Amino acid sequence: MLFNSFGFLFLFLPVTLAIWWLCQKKFGLRLALAWLALASLMFYAVWDIRYLVVLLSSISINFWLGGRILHAKQEHKDKLASHWLKAGIGFNLLMLGGFKYTYFLLANLFAVFHAAPPIDPIVLPLAISFVTFQKIAYLVDCRRGDVRRHNALDYLFFVSFFPQLIAGPIVHHKPLIAQTRPDDNPLFKQKEALITGLTFLALGLFKKTILADSMARYASPVFELARQATPGGEVAWQAMLAYTLQLYFDFSAYSDMAIGLALMFGFKLPINFLSPYKAVSIIDFWRRWHMTLSSFLRDYLYIPLGGNRQGQFKRYRNLWLTMLLAGIWHGAGWNFFLWGALHGSMLLINHFWQHVLQGSTVIRRLWHKLPKIISIAFTFLLVAFAWVLFRAPDMTSATHMYSALLHPMTGTNLPALQWQNIAHVAESLLSTSADAGWLWIGIGMLVVWCLPNTTELLAYDPLPNVAIPPLSERRQMVLGLMAGAGLWFALKWMALRPATEFLYFNF
Fold first, then answer.
1. Taking burial as the number of CB atoms within 10 A of a residue's CB, which of 4, 174, 259, 418 is the most buried?
2. Is 330 marked active-site?
3. What's the number of CA atoms in the CB half-sphere (13 Å) around residue 279?
4. What is the pLDDT confidence band of residue 423, given thresholds at 50, 70 and 90?
């Protein structure tokens, strides 16, 4: 079920929210929580009820494994607890690998013998990557002694809570489960949470339907052309920049809508984006982009590998391996492998450059005199070039795209993307001409570089169990106008175009 669908907005959400508030008021929070978990499972089952069995089986096994780890720790059997943890991590990785990488591995193996793999591509269960990370983190936290209460309903809610179920943000159990205690969570009684949540939802819906989906019209046809031929230089650059903006608006829209939906039920989710295209370096970019993934990789992969505790060489090795595995996590393909390796290499170069700056006062002074916009633009272009690997369907497409980007005077243009005279801006925004593409890209650049992000605009504090400051009448009016305008434009757009999936559903 898509957040940007009429069925979700006008049926599932209001019914789920109404019963949640009714149960909470009349029967207590535990029954309301049970309803929310059940509604989340129904939300998941709408896509394909067969995969609900996979999700529930995985949840049950992981909850049992968590209990085994906690029981072993209570009996001071640390070695046994470690064995149970290894079994749990192995089980989750086998589940993820079986669905996500089996076909890729078989295809590459049989390609050596010029034969077709014996199976068809496997349809990924929705949310398998995100849910796998959350369950592994929970088992590790059980082993570390960070889990204080091990309750089946709490665990089911933590894993299946529908706002963040499909594409994150990746949530840790402690801050989310801590919010299920009615005496500790002031948001359950705050109208401010509902108003702010609705505004988040409306602005996210606007970003997805109008900004992200509009960018897709100038990216998708060119990447499809790249399967067969080298695109023209202009359309290749336009497609790269359009996809760079599409991916940001699409994924950040989902994260904003997830925060908003959670707030409407009285819960807080972590911030996932902090204006990443304003980053002044690749290091800064990864502190701002998909922040919950970066935190997970740091806490559960980079640090266990040794972090920076074993000298500079091993620090760089651990960092590069972490990014390589991040690329593989995103998808089964050589393009994702290279994307992770490329970002890992750029991070190493960035860290080395920081080392050079620290060792030379003259270079550091000259560097700091450069306008900040140069660092931002250079970082943005590096990230955009790397996104080509992320978006390309295969390595042939990526090669064609890079050839067009680096040799802009060659290649094939798409007829629909050739230059046209545009009489009216309104008409151009609905056009698929190259002029309209550059206009949309210009609008996107202004949004990401010149405007505050949604969490800044709404002054969102992600700390759990912290009340939202009282809203003045003027603030309520402003938020109401923002939500109303966002919803009106988004719904008008949705009425004209079919709902599209969020890009991270594919990962």
1. 259
2. yes
3. 20
4. very low
